[in-house]
């Protein structure tokens, strides 16, 4: 008999969605009192570090990405997500397993140790991917909370997870950088609608609002009260952000590509259960169990 897990973050509701204060902490443990980066993370929902990895490591990772993208064996691999209607690569999942060089970059960045401090425990990789916004063809990622998806579709019980984004190219104001509403990590934003079966096949390529997206009214309310920070920085920089922070990124119609390694760390004390949306668990490359 499976264990029933209480749902403190109900979402995909049939009625009017609401915004409520998160009952769990943002920083788990006492690192906020000892570490300035962790204190900034607790306040804003994210923290940035420049020169987290070396120029040589950046070049090595870019070469690896070209190798993976050009590998004929990966042409029909479900872990390679292409922009809707084109052959342009949008994301490559399981990138930490596909490339030793990428994992070496994650280790060099200090992301693992920072995640352990924030989450107050050992960590495991919930998901990894390369987000690639090629010049002229990079699609947008609409406003969302990662935890809302991971809770509903993967069965992550609590928002005890964080994401490291490591820049392999400059993240400029004009080439689709990450946008975060600082402080929204402290609030859970319910969404409305029923989750279709195998919804990830659609959601991974969708650039606009869909099931799991907050309402325009909620986005406007939180944008007015919290503002929007544009996360830019040179190649080699790293941004750690909270799984519940509301974030998005615009499309890239410039000639300048934007590539980031993206690794999600989950606390080992926050193991996945059955999805709270009542659907079948997503594939392992999206949610490692």
UniProtKB/TrEMBL annotation:
<protein>
    <submittedName>
        <fullName>Ectoine hydroxylase</fullName>
    </submittedName>
</protein>
<dbReference type="GO" id="GO:0016706">
    <property type="term" value="F:2-oxoglutarate-dependent dioxygenase activity"/>
</dbReference>
<dbReference type="InterPro" id="IPR008775">
    <property type="entry name" value="Phytyl_CoA_dOase-like"/>
</dbReference>
<dbReference type="Pfam" id="PF05721">
    <property type="entry name" value="PhyH"/>
</dbReference>
<dbReference type="GO" id="GO:0005506">
    <property type="term" value="F:iron ion binding"/>
</dbReference>
């Amino acid at each position: 008999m499976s264990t029933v897990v209480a749902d403190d973050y109900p979402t995909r509701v049939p009625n009017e969605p609401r915004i409520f204060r998160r009952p769990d902490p943002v920083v788990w443990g006492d690192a906020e009192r000892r570490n300035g980066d962790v204190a900034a993370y607790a306040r804003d929902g994210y923290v940035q570090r420049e020169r987290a990895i070396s120029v040589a490591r950046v070049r090595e990772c870019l070469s690896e990405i070209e190798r993976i993208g050009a590998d004929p064996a990966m042409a029909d691999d479900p872990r390679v997500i292409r922009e809707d209607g084109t052959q342009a690569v949008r994301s490559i999942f399981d990138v930490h397993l596909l490339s030793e060089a990428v994992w070496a970059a994650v280790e060099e960045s200090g992301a693992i140790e920072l995640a352990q401090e924030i989450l107050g425990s050992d960590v495991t990789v919930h998901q990894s991917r390369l987000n690639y916004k090629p010049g002229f063809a990079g699609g947008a990622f609409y406003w969302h909370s990662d935890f809302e998806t991971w809770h509903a579709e993967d069965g992550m019980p609590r928002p005890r997870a964080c994401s490291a984004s490591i820049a392999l190219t400059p993240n400029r104001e004009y080439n689709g950088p990450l946008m975060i509403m600082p402080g929204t990590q402290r609030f859970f934003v319910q969404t409305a609608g029923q989750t279709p079966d195998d919804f990830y096949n659609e959601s991974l390529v969708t650039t606009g609002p869909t099931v799991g997206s907050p309402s325009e009214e909620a986005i406007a309310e939180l944008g007015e009260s919290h503002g929007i920070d544009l996360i830019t920085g040179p190649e080699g920089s790293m941004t750690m952000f909270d799984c519940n922070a509301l974030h998005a990124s615009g499309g890239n119609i410039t000639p300048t590509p934007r590539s980031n390694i993206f690794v999600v760390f989950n606390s080992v004390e926050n193991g996945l259960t059955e999805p709270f949306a009542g659907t079948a668990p997503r594939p392992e490359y999206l949610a490692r169990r």
